[in-house]
Amino acid sequence: MDFIIMQHVHNNFCSGNLYYTCKEIEGPYLDVHARFDRLLGRGTKQWAIGPLLPITTINDVDDQKNMIHRHEYLKWLDKQEPNSVLLVSFGTTTSLSIEQIKELAIGLETSQQKFIWIVSDVLLKECEQVQIPKGYEERVQGRGVVVKDWAPQLEILGHSAIGGFLTHCGWNSILESVTMGIPLSIWPMVFDHPRIAVLVTNVLKIGIKVKDWERRDELITSTTIETAIRKLMGSPEGNEVKKNIVDLGKKVRQSINVGGDSKKAMDSFIAHFTRS
Question: Does this model's pTM top 0.90?
């Protein structure tokens, strides 16, 4: 109760609201927030400053190839065809059961899709070390890469070889994928993931579901995973999703350039708090 009271008290001297998003992605909802503040007589400012990503260097793949100290997995991607590889990563705060990891591994294998799977981020519900099925890496060698340590997700998403992203719906991952124009295969798990999943699939139409939130307690079979991957990477529906996110990505990148909405919001935010 003390915390709730504190939130109301702060409105008396609140300058505005800072949002890690942009109008191109959540414009209608930002407008609703602004109208709500006006109805309450707050008159507070609104700054939507996202995304905060170094996209000017990430998108320059040719310059990356000339860099001496590039991550080994980027060098592997250099050898792959454009839009041919699926990135799989579930962030640092989600967990999968041992059985679910096995089903995911099989689904990736039977899909015959090239992939790069970052398993170091996955936490097991049993709090044990992630166990990839025995002999798995040998079976997928040349077609799939299993990453057991840190990997530069943003740089991987910015590589021309990446054609899709299987993700847990973390907001940072969504913004990175949108900015890079990479279509999404989504698997919501916790926190705000279910709402983000609705935004991605039903509203923006830039992703395809692997697992519905209603099935959060069910084991998702390898067959379901395989079907979702094939749909994203090689179907008319996947192509439509690709088109939508490429178009949205262009708008998002433009928004952080000079004259763009996010750039204007950032400049306004800085000017507000540095005024004399």
Answer: no
